Amino acid sequence: MKGAILSFLLSVTLFLTGSLMIYGQSGTKYVPLTAQLEIEVIVPLSISKEANLSFGFASPGNGTGYVTILPAENPQRTASGVATLLPSGSGIVSAAKFRVTGAPGAQVNISVPDYTFPLYHQGGTTSVNLNLTGSSNSLQLGPAGDGVFYVGGTVTMWWGQSLGVYSGTFNVTVCNN
Fold it and tell me: Would you list the DSSP string of 2-22?
């Protein structure tokens, strides 16, 4: 008798579980839902360097001196403080020149670092300071999808520093507006 009751309860449990599953499924409703899809296909920006920033030859003088290159195609070079400009051959003085390519007419934001960079002597022990200046913080690409911008700056020199070549690197960033 106990076996029959247990068998009956097991059958009822299986039957009710199955019917509950069927009942749960029969209550499901199909509700159509739509979503919008968007994609924008663009011409990616690229940037290339066409000229380095080069200050030419200068003498520091007795104290603190500055040499400045304006950010332009044919940059003006000036000295202030106690720095003296020395003759520099053709092509030695230049602003850095960068070419940006992308979609024709695209508006591009330009970021030039605004902090002081050390330029190190070829021996690596002494440095001069460089502050950069960009020609613009934005640029509209032309009908061919390109444009250029320039980076100049000011080098600070001190009396008694090592003579020779000082160099360093800097990064610029461009992005779509």
Answer: HHHHHHHHHHHHHHHHHHHHH
